[in-house]
Amino acid sequence: MNLSRASLGFLGLFFMASAILLIFLTLLGGARNSNPLNQIYFLQADTGNIPGAPATSRWTFWNLCGVTANGRNDCGTTHVDFPFDPPSHRNFDTTENVPHQFIGTNHYFLTSRFMFPFIIIGLFFAVCSLFTGLLAMCTRVASYLSGLLAWIALTFQVITTCLMTAVFVQGRRAFSRNGQVSKLGVKAFAFMWTASALLFLSCLMYCLGGAVGRKDTSGGYSGRKERRRGFFSSQRNGSVKSQKQETSANYA
């Protein structure tokens, strides 16, 4: 079934809007203690044996949260670009009972901090692609422009998601090896990887929308050229034939 530019543009717009929604949910997880933001986190670990730490800790983009009786985030003051660095003063401010993998390294701090600017950049280009996508249903130029913006957003989204996966999977492994039960936040990971897939589909739909309906003008030009050549050739052949007939009549 052939899809028109309007249909492909609408699909690209739909996938882009869905991706932006999932990214916003992940970005704002932990910013407020309200549903559904209080269910989104990257990593949960049992930290009751660490002095000054809650019994169970959850890390988000904004803070280190406890857990309520019904399993929701119990977050306090928010901090932009909150790092995942258990022994530092930003988290527990102690090395007692903290897994040794976190001590004496900036790996977890830097990796988690770079997530925030990358997701913001990707979200900016995704929103720009959403607005230009309104015109992608009408024009080829807007389709290609939306596809380019979607591709840039996808690049930064994949970088963010890979950083998130690497640092928090390593963090979970470190807590587990230290005898502290830990698990990844299913919603945050599902949202981020699904958003990456949706951005790819959106980019694909926009590019297909730009390519649809393109006509091969070379065939039309050569056809017109052949017809024009044939017309003049027939005229020339006719004139030569008439000249030969006149010459034969004169000799007769």
From TrEMBL:
The keyword Membrane applies. Residues 231-252 are annotated as: Disordered. Keywords: Membrane, Transmembrane, Transmembrane helix. Gene3D superfamilies: 1.20.140.150. Pfam families: SUR7. GO terms for cellular component: cell cortex; membrane raft; plasma membrane. GO terms for biological process: cortical actin cytoskeleton organization; endocytosis; fungal-type cell wall organization; septin cytoskeleton organization. The chain crosses the membrane at residues 6-28, 114-136, 148-169, 190-212. It comes from the Eukaryota. Residues 232-252 have a biased composition (Polar residues). The keyword Chloroplast does not apply. This is Actin cortical patch SUR7/pH-response regulator PalI.
